[in-house]
Structures are given as C-alpha cells and as structure tokens.
Design brief:
The structure is a single chain. This protein is an alpha+beta fold. It has one domain: Cytochrome p450 (Orthogonal Bundle). Helices cover 52% and strands 11% of the residues. The protein is built from 18 helices and twelve strands. A five-stranded mixed sheet has the order 1-2-8-5-3, sandwiched between helices. The chain has a three-stranded antiparallel sheet with strand order 4-12-9. A two-stranded antiparallel sheet has the order 6-7. A hairpin with a 3-residue loop joins strand 10 and strand 11. Helix 8 packs across helix 18. The longest helix has 32 residues. The N and C termini lie far apart (99 Å).
Length: 472
C-alpha cells in the first residue's frame, strides 16, 4: 500500500515536472521574438536585402539582442548567430543539416548538395568533384577561353555602351551550358535560360504557392527545367560514356559507378545537383565579375596592377593562342583582388542550416527542426580580424594562411568549402584577362548602388561606356 501511494504521488507530480522542464527550455532559448507566425521578420529582412542594408540589419539585431537571437525567417523558427565560432559551428557541427529555406528546398529538391549532411553529403560531393577537381578542370581552360572570346566578339565588340550584369549572366550561363551539358547553342538553350531566370527569382521568397506569386512562377519554371535535364540525362545514358567520362558534368555523373558497378547517382540526384551547380556557378560568378568591373572603374591603382599582370601574359602568346592552366597560375594579383571584392561584398549574403536534434550554442538551446542563419559579412567586416575592413587591399590574401580559420567564408569553410572554387577561379581569371587587355571603361550612371535579390546586383545593372583597345 505504501508503494502504491508513493507511485500515485509521483505520477501526480509528472505534469508539473514537464511544465517546469518546458519553462526551463523556453528560458534557455536565445533572446528575440519569433514575430507573426510564418512571416515573422521575413519582410523586414527582404527589404534590407533589397536595399543592400542587410549587414546593418544584422548589426542592429546584435546590438538589441546580443550575438545570438531568435526570429522567424521564410516560415521557420530561426536562430541568428555570428562570429568565428559561429562559422565553425555552422560548417563543422554534425547536429546541423544543410537544410535551406522551404523555398530553396522546393525549387532545388531534397538531394541537392546543400541539403545533405554526413555520408550523403560526402557521397554527392565526391561525385561532383569527379568533374570539378583541378586536374579535370585544367582540360577545359581552352574551351572556357573560346566561350569568353566569343562572348566579347558578339556582345562587346563595336559597342559604345553596354550594361554589365545581364551580359555577365549571359556569359556565365553559356559557359555552364557548354561545360555542364556540352550542347550547342540553340532553341533548347534559349528556353532553359529563360526558365532558369524565373527559377532563381524565387530562391529566397516567402513559400506561399499562390497563383501569380514569384514562388509559384519559380515552381513552374523548376518543373520544366527538370524535364529538360531529364531528357539530357537520358540522351547521355543512351550513349557509351566510357570513352569520354569527363566530356561534361552530366556525362561524368551518368558514367560514375560504385564498387559493385551499380549507378552511383540516381537521375533525380543528378537533376537536383545540376540545378544547384548552375545557380552557384551562374549567379555568383556573374555577380563577382560585375563587381570587379564596377570596382576597377573607380580604382585606377588596382586596375593598373591587374592590367600589368595580364599584359605580361598576353605579350607572351600569339593573339590566336588560348590561355592555359599555367597562364592562370601567373594571375596571382588578379585573383587576390577578386578575393578582396568577395570579402567586402560577398555575392551570397548568408545561408541556413537546420538542427537534427536539440542543440546548444553559446549557452542557448536551439530546438530540433529550427533553422540556424549565419551571415558572411559579420566576420569579413570585423576590424579585429581584418584591419581597416572597409579599405580595399588585395595584399590581405598574399598569405592566406595568416587569416584565422572560419573568418573568410566567401566559399564556405572546412568540409563545407564550395566544390566549385576552382571552376569559379578559372571563369573569373579568363574573363578578366580579355576584359582588361581588350577594353577600357567608365561608369555612365549616377546610381551604381547595390541591391540583393538574393544575389548582390547593381540597381541599374551597371551600364558602362567602353572603348576597345584592339580587335580580338
């Protein structure tokens, strides 16, 4: 009887125990407000992105709530964190999954590299690196050289003014179409390009799928893009790929086999990751090239240094001779200048991870299923990490080992460093070579302010007045 009374008494205290536990858990949440359900702070954040004041938006949160705070972004409870320790936590912690906002997941699929973690992430990353590793990409420098020359001949030669951003998007899209699909320009490429623009516009949008919304248009475009990529995959699978396993990205992924000769990636995995590589290689590279042109128009010292480096390479070759891998290795200052632009104005402002279980950071609880949001500029513009952070100084990257780990995160860091780093480097250096050796330019708009949607862009697309030095 005694034990029965004791048991009943203990049971009566269980509800109180769980209530107290819930209260303690709630008080351990970071400070801040989740705001209106689903919407939360999404609208104010998107406005700040549009006005290119998202850095200040984050700084204001830090001043109000401290280095860790909770909010709601894109329909999901979110914890914003920043700093070197936060970056390391984001890029290395196994309790976090790279789950992007619902808008991103819907458009790119569940098996894209940015969504995966653990063994799945290693599996897909390893497949992509079969094409994106330097020893493979060096084979394609000449092909990229040809695309860049063709671009300047078609879109720049003989012109007095051009608008940079749409042209850089055209260039990077054509490079990706050539190297990822290995298909000729034509009606299919033109249709894909139009759909691709519609898809990208919905990446960071409130995930409400109603007619005539940006998100709805992006979903429709994504579905049609998937059909095109599936058709290309079937074309590649119907051919013998063994003779040229590195002909293009899709052919490479289609030809990959496991130890037991089974297909390494499903068709859906290939579709999801081709879309991801397309966005990563198109939007960010086009944005970086546009920012390079914008900066050099206002910085004659850096322009002169890049021009000197590139002219030395140009004079060592005939005008018909394409650039080589060895030529790119000589473009050290040009690449340091590009890295510095990425430090000051990273094309991707920040990214999201999601907790796989209740997780602690900085003494606070981040509940299972919540998003973790980080922003690159919070360490890039920290004067305790980079002295005079607002000053443009490519010499910061002469010795990259001197930069503290997890502080420069333009390409991610640690096991999450961007697999397309070398692809981007080749793309930027080849383009900058022909740009500075063949053209001079100056800005011809009063408003060269930047916006984010979600990638950084000049509000007017950066119109410039150009003068050709000599014929390509």
């Amino acid at each position: 009887m005694y034990y029965l009374v004791l048991f009943i008494t203990l049971l009566s205290f269980l509800p109180i125990f769980f209530i107290l536990k819930k209260i303690r858990s709630t008080t351990r949440l970071p400070p801040g407000s989740l705001g209106i359900p689903i919407i939360g702070q999404s609208l104010s954040f998107l406005r700040a992105m549009k006005a290119n004041t998202a850095g200040k938006w984050c700084e204001d949160r830090v001043k109000k709530y401290g280095p860790i705070s909770k909010l709601t972004l894109f329909g999901t409870p979110t914890v914003f964190i920043h700093g070197q320790a936060a970056n390391k936590f984001v890029f290395t912690n196994d309790t976090l999954n790279s789950q992007q906002p619902k808008s991103f997941r819907t458009l790119f699929g569940k098996r894209n590299l940015l969504e995966l973690s653990g063994k799945d992430h290693k599996h897909v990353r390893g497949a992509l690196m079969a094409f994106l590793k330097p020893e493979v990409l060096k084979q394609y420098v000449g092909k990229m050289d040809g695309e860049v020359r063709k671009h300047f001949e078609m879109h720049w030669q003989g012109k007095e003014t051009v608008t940079v951003l749409p042209l850089m998007k055209t260039l990077t899209f054509n490079i990706l179409w050539s190297l990822l699909f290995n298909l000729e320009h034509g009606a299919r490429r033109k249709k894909f390009a139009m759909l691709f623009e519609q898809m990208v516009q919905g990446l960071w949008s409130i995930p409400i799928n109603l007619p005539f919304t940006r998100f709805n248009r992006s979903i429709q475009a994504t579905s049609r893009i998937q059909n095109i990529i599936m058709d290309v995959i079937q074309e590649k699978r119907s051919r013998k790929q063994e003779a040229y396993p590195h002909k293009d990205l899709i052919a490479t992924l289609v030809s990959l086999r496991g130890d037991d000769n089974t297909i390494l990636l499903s068709d859906q995995e290939i579709v999801d990751n081709v879309r991801t590589v397309m966005v990563a290689g198109h939007e960010t590279s086009a944005g970086l090239l546009t920012l390079c042109i914008r900066h050099l128009a206002n910085d004659p010292v850096v322009y002169a240094a890049i021009l000197k480096e590139q002219q030395e390479i140009a004079t060592s070759k005939t005008s018909e001779e394409p650039l080589t891998w060895d030529d790119l290795a000589k473009m050290k200052y040009t690449w340091r200048a590009a890295l510095e632009i990425l430090r000051i104005v990273p094309p991707i402002f920040g990214a999201f991870r999601r907790t796989l279980k209740d997780t602690e950071f900085g003494g606070y609880l981040i509940p299972k299923g919540w998003q973790v949001f980080w922003a690159a500029n919070m360490t890039h513009m920290n004067d305790s990490i980079f002295s005079e952070p607002s000053k443009f100084d490519p010499s910061r990257f002469e010795n990259q080992a001197s930069i503290p780990p997890y502080c420069y995160v333009a390409f991610g860091a640690g096991p999450r460093i961007c697999p397309g780093y070398e692809f981007t480097r080749i793309e930027i250096l080849v383009t900058m070579h022909y740009l500075v050796t063949q053209y001079t330019w100056k800005l011809c708009c009063k408003d060269d302010n930047l916006s984010r949607d979600p990638m950084v862009i000049p509000t007017q697309g950066l119109p410039i007045q150009i003068e050709q030095k000599n014929r390509l």
